[in-house]
UniProtKB/TrEMBL annotation:
SUPFAM superfamilies found in the cross-reference section: SET domain (SSF82199)
Superkingdom: Bacteria
InterPro entries in the record: Post-SET_dom, SET_dom, SET_dom_sf
Domain Post-SET: 120-136
Cross-referenced Pfam families: SET
Keywords for this protein: S-adenosyl-L-methionine, Transferase
Protein name as it appears in the record: Post-SET domain-containing protein
PROSITE patterns, A to Z: POST_SET
Amino acid sequence: MLLGSVAPDGGTTHGLGLRATAPVPAGTVVWFPCPQCPTYTPDQLGLLPPDVVDRLDTWGHLLSDARMLVPCAGAYLMNHSCTPSVLDFGLDFGVAVVDIPAGAEVTCDYGTFNGDPESWSMDCVCGSPSCRGEVGTVDHADPAVRASWVERVEAVLPAVRAVPQPLGRLLSTHSAAYRSVLDGLSRVDGSGDSVVRPGFLGVSV
Ligand SMILES: [Zn+2]
Ligand SMILES: [Zn+2]
């Protein structure tokens, strides 16, 4: 599920991406894996043509139960940045960690996606001054990178409780992490799961 004020847009550095159509205050939940997001088991993927699997692999991410999930409502188009405006580390939803102005691209950090049992990496062209150059499995294993994600996520948790949450009703139903944040959660697990273990799988974070 994707925030209504974030929409697909073609004019980004990576081709297709997402852009804020209205200001998105820090603390706003931008997207989360929901029961309407299409998922594919390894057996189902095995029956699809390779080019379709490649496309799903580009758009989706593996869950902790080995299914591939493709974020619905256009959220699958979110590009990576090494200085992302949205983070999900230690949560099962992506939250704006900065105030995102109208017109700005909305990005997340692919390094948090640790559901793939195989190691993977990609060259990064995000253009951030703190670009890591290469993004992949190594990031999640790097304590310094994880610490930076934890710091940015924990800094914004009070704002999650304070700002309007257009997705709040659905989140309360489907996200264990969101309920924990509303209950006053101030720290996240730095060993970390993320949207690879969504609340709708019935697993608490
Ligand atoms: Zn969904
Ligand atoms: Zn980068």
